[in-house]
Amino acid sequence: MSRPDLVNTFRERIAGGLISAPLAGTSDPPWYRLLAGEGINAFWTEMTTADGLLRGGRKTRAMLTQEPGRPTDPPRPLPRLYPDLGVPVVCQLFGHLPEAFAFAARFVELCGYDALDLNFGCPAQKVVRSGNGVALMRDPPLALEIASATLESTSLPVTAKLRLGFASDPRIFLRLAAELDGMGITALTLHPRTREDGFSGRSDWSAITELVGAVRCPVIGNGDVKAPEDARRMLESTGCHAVMVGRAFIREPWQARRMAQMLRGEEVRPEADWTGRVEWTRRHGLLLAGFYGEKRAMFKVRRFALHYLRGVEGAGELRRRMAVVADLAEFERLLDEALAL
């Protein structure tokens, strides 16, 4: 079971703060270091398949031990991952086999993560079709068996991420959350949309308020936080313990510092100007290159550059060229030219 001292410390470290959401293709060591020092209280990894870990998939195991020199199959507990970040890193797991989650929980603890999260909310078709993610909210007994197997297999804090449920029953979250709370879950994150909603329309923050009043464990709010004012409004209007932000950071990672300042009651720094946007792009590209190597980094940085490099005349042509950037020298040259726009 989760050690009470670790649970209490984890809850204290995220209280009233800002969390970087699990983002497929984004939440990786360069991303953590891009936002390190920007006021983030915890990072969630992109979701990792528990079933793949149980099967011994080398690629899946390597995802969890990405730092150089760390074994992909640790025989004993490793030192804490990412100590330089100064904040917890939470490994998110998905799947549908309780025995896989039990194995994965032990593996994650060996790898040096600070906590782990159960994904009961992903609405992606390929995930749901396999009985994973939000599909588990249609099978509460299985979801609870997974949670129990996980809690029994690790001393780390265990959290879970939920949606409202399905259009046919958008109240599932309250029933499942009450059961998870009773089992000793460390915290619950709610993205208040149904599976059918995906990410369309407005998220229903009143459901976060309702969940806060229904459980004893901390509730993390998630959904439609795009600006500092949104972060403060979610925290104050719902009574949630912390605010999780995802898509807004992909578009404008500099919003992290602004949101954190707003939540702490500090003066909020201005939006990033054009020079700032260029330098955020440069920094992210260099972090990616240092971790993945030049070729893979240039492929990965393209999608971020298309978001970051907006706001001035001539930026469209720059983004067109950045969308096919192939090497670090060209990347640097394009950014140097961008400063003249």
UniProtKB/TrEMBL annotation:
It catalyses: a 5,6-dihydrouridine in tRNA + NADP(+) = a uridine in tRNA + NADPH + H(+); a 5,6-dihydrouridine in tRNA + NAD(+) = a uridine in tRNA + NADH + H(+). The active site is at residue 122. Coiled coil: none annotated. FMN binds at residues 92, 161, 191, 246-247. Signal peptide: none annotated. Keywords: Flavoprotein, FMN, NADP, Nucleotide-binding, Oxidoreductase, RNA-binding, tRNA processing, tRNA-binding. It holds the Pfam family Dus. InterPro entries: Aldolase_TIM, DUS-like_FMN-bd, DUS_fam, tRNA-dHydroUridine_Synthase_C. Its EC number is 1.3.1.-. Belongs to the dus family. Catalyzes the synthesis of 5,6-dihydrouridine (D), a modified base found in the D-loop of most tRNAs, via the reduction of the C5-C6 double bond in target uridines. This is tRNA-dihydrouridine synthase. It comes from Candidatus Coatesbacteria bacterium RBG_13_66_14.
